[in-house]
Amino acid sequence: MDVSRLVGLTLLTAIITTPTLAQDTPGHGADEMTSESLKNLDAMKAKPYGLLTNTSEMSRRNLDIRMPTPRGLFPVVDHPAILDPLFPNLEVDKPIADAMAAIRKSITDPISLTFEPMAAWTFQHSPKTAGGGPGMTKSVLWEAIASVLMLWQDQGNCGHVVCVLQNNVGVGKPLLPFMGPAVGNPGNVNNVLVSQHLTVDLYWQQSILNNRLRVRVGKIKETSFFDRNTVAYDPIHGFMAENFNQSLTNPFPSRGFGGVVSYDIEDNVTIRGSTMNSASNGYSSGFDGLALNHLFSIAEADIRIFPELWGDKRQGHLRFMGWYNSIPNPNGAGAIGGWGGTFNMDLAVSEQATVFCRIGCGENDVTPANFACSTGLHVTQPFGIKSSETGIAFEYMQVTESGRVGTNEYFNVPSVAPAGDQYMMEWFWRVHLTKHSDTGPVIQVVRDTSAGVNTTVIYGWRTSISF
Fold first, then answer.
1. What is the pLDDT of residue 53?
2. Rounded CA gap, 432 and 82, in Å?
């Protein structure tokens, strides 16, 4: 892969789209998770409501509250593409859907609690592993539930408690070791994976200043708010490898305790900042290892753009991130620290097609990759097939020694795979089977000669269901 062409393409896109920032633009807020969740203009005029609001003042309304997905992720676009079910009249999952609807109507709606359960099964087979090892097959079930408890909503301001529970189990095959490290990848080639333990996101979410300022405090997964992307972000419905859900140069902590602040400077520009415990193992309270020299801090500018392409106004995003990571020294006492940054963009180039690109870099000691560049194309309803979407993406990455820790643990020896270059490609096809289910193949190609993986093709399948 020609890295210079990828970098050139990204810089050209930024140069072309940046002058459009001053245009009059539709939409409201670059932080759609909150700016769209309450339908601001409607909510300003609504009567107060929520669990802690006096019932005489409450007005039960069908507001479109944006839910986090069961992975804790929030939607990025105002109007996500809607696929038509391939079998619209097939109702094998109707009993479960009816049960969930009954629970919402009789139990959760009266206390202003919204929830969404979800499950996914993934299968992957790689004929090669690191060091020229034998093949590996994985069959994994992921189950999760996301919930938002609305304590109050008044004049566009609100108070939420957000909770996300997730878990993985092996199905016919052991869950561990994960396939990513086994093929030299510092992340997950199957990012539907979370942990062999129950993981919890639990935090308070407060909006003020007519919802222009949002504050979250608690046990948080930072990818819910940083390095998001319209089409390269959600492993349940889009690209499945972590390499295409974020830049692996961003060393996000594993659900540590911390806080995130977002502020809408104007309707289409949002800035965010966060500081988080960098030493958490991800499945504890989030306070484990917390210290002043064990913190990850990041700032991001998220800009929504509306360039005119071939006579039509299109939507896209430009995101600029800078971070500092201080972590326990893996080779001795004390802590080590380092800086890094990422550029992230997406742009709709037609009604059905969206392109994306990420470029990131970071200091060797504190990130699994000191450089990574990824780009790809996502297409909704390809060839006029209204039940499907597809995508293809490519990445070049320079893996650091710290990024090889998982691979060396796979070998069960102190050090085998040195730092080196990795190339990756992914193609997926998703079919919206019924109202509640999706399925389709996921094919990945990994080349990492430093890890002893000349070229391996990972054959996969993914099926998900949600209610």
1. 52
2. 10
Residue range 3-466 forms a domain whose CATH class is mainly beta
Strands (DSSP E) contained in 278-334 are 295-305, 308-309, 312-313, 316-328
pLDDT attached to residue 169:
95
Nearest to 245 by CA among 320, 346, 339, 166: 346
**What does the block give as tokens for 370?**
């000191």
Q: What are phi and psi of 304, to 5 degrees?
A: -90, 135
Q: Which pair of structure tokens corresponds to residue 204? A: 């308070």
Tokens coding 27: 């939409």
Alpha-carbon gap, residue 195 to 171, rounded angstroms: 15
Distances (CA, A) of 9 to 13, 119, 357, 373: 6, 37, 9, 11
Which residues of the chain fall below pLDDT 70? Answer: 1-67, 69-72, 74-81, 155-156, 413-415
Closest CA to 305 of 11, 14, 32: 14
Whether the Cβ atoms of residue 274 and residue 215 lie closer than 8 Å to each other:
no
243 DSSP 8-state letter: G
Please give the Cα distance from 127 to 182 (Å, whole number). 11
Torsion of CA 2, 229, 301, 270, to 10 degrees: 160
How long, in residues, is the chain? 467
CA distance 312 to 142: 41
Give residue 408's Cα distance to chain centre: 26
Write the DSSP symbol of residue 85.
P
Report the C-alpha gap between 335 and 333 in whole angstroms: 7
pLDDT given at position 67: 58
Contacts of 19 (CB under 8 A, 6+ apart): none
Is residue 387 within 8 Å of residue 83, measured between CB atoms?
yes
Q: Which residue, among 29, 72, 320, has the nearest Cα to 216 in the 3D structure?
A: 72
Residue 298 · residue 58 · CB < 8 Å? no
Pairwise CA distance, residues 456 & 461, whole Å: 16
Report the b/e string of 70-105 with b at 16+ CB within 10 A.
Answer: bbbbbbbbeeeeebebbeeeeeebeeebeebeeeee
**The whole model's pTM is what?**
0.85
Beta bridge partners of 402: none
